[in-house]
User: Fold this.
Amino acid sequence: MAKLKEYLQVGQIRKGHGLDGLIKMTLKADFTHVIDKTDHFFIEENGQKLPLFIEKQVFDGQDYIVKFEDIDNPQDATQLSAKAIFMDKAVLEKLIDYKSKEKDLPFDITDLIGYVIKDNSLEDNLEIIDIQQFPRQVMATVELNGKEMFLPLSDELIALIDHNTKLISTAYPEGIFDL
Assistant:
């Protein structure tokens, strides 16, 4: 049985730019150099990863302005707004130089599924059963008292992530678990 390809989110399409189907997109800091080494990215559509082939790209100091094949007008570009940009993980490993054993692919937030949240205001630990990525917020799905609930994952709320023990120490505001 063939092994399924693994993909890693490397950025986000922001919005269309101009009248020729150009797109503004951002790349995560760890991946800014790969845009010059690849000819395509992937987006997710109906559970499938679809390639977007790069015709040209330029960095404007904040965003990448990219022209993808077959995206030729503002309407096509708008349909891609806010979509996540992915790359094949195996391709990324080849593009990124790994001479040090300490280096690994940059951390992806979905890797936290299965980690345990430990908060000082809770007696029990909460296992992350899913991660939801929204345009401005990442949420962990946990089960508390037999009910699923969303907990925001942000730098301000996370005190420590221990990848060895898969434990996340948090400092959630009082009352968040009473909702």
Remarks:
- Residues 98-106 have pLDDT under 50 and may be disordered.
- The helical segments are 74-79, 89-95.
